[in-house]
Amino acid sequence: MTLERWRPRTLGTWSPFEEMERFLSSNWPSRIFWRRLPAEDMCWAPAMEMYEKDDHIIVRAELPGVKKEDVDVSISGDMLTLRGERKTSEEVSEGDYYRSELCYGSFSRSITLPAAVNAKKVEASYEDGILEIKVPKAEEAKPTKVQIKAK
Predict the structure, then answer these.
(1) Domain extents in the chain
(2) In the predicted model, what is the mean pLDDT of residues 64-93?
């Protein structure tokens, strides 16, 4: 976070576009989704969410611009790993870029699953840039109801 000297503004000098540009360049999205590295090592990782539903663990990942053939899902023990690549759609050979915030290249993202799972029955679907992985819990990880006996 950078500190700026407070300058009182009048209605005539405030520009919402400059304010938005300052906000976007300092706060979003680089601090949230991407790791910033030297330009030659720039990389990205998809945003993910994970939740439990009944006897499954659902993992969803945002993969805009990635074809399903370019994504690999694997489970090893309690670790789910997504690997893939977002390829550029076209090469620009004329002119210069003024600004480019899109990230291309390979990615790898691993998350630890909260319970033991049955890796042989995992299902994955891909629609509108969202990969949804449905991971069934192993029998020993499913909750069992305990009967309470009255004396």
Answers:
(1) 42-88+102-141
(2) 86
Q: What single string gives the DSSP state of each residue in 52-99?
A: EETTEEEEEEE-TT--GGGEEEEEETTEEEEEEEEPPS----SS--S-
Predicted pLDDT of residue 146 = 84
In this structure, what token pair is assigned to residue 133? 């992985």
Judged by DSSP in three states, 125 sits in strand
Q: pTM for the complete prediction?
A: 0.62
Handedness of CA 90, 48, 57, 54 (dihedral sign): negative
Q: Give dist(CA 106, CA 102) in Å, integer.
A: 13
Pick the CATH number of 42-88+102-141 from 2.60.120.10, 2.60.40.790, 3.10.560.10, 3.60.15.10: 2.60.40.790
Q: First-to-last CA distance in the chain?
A: 63
Averaged pLDDT, 138-142 = 77
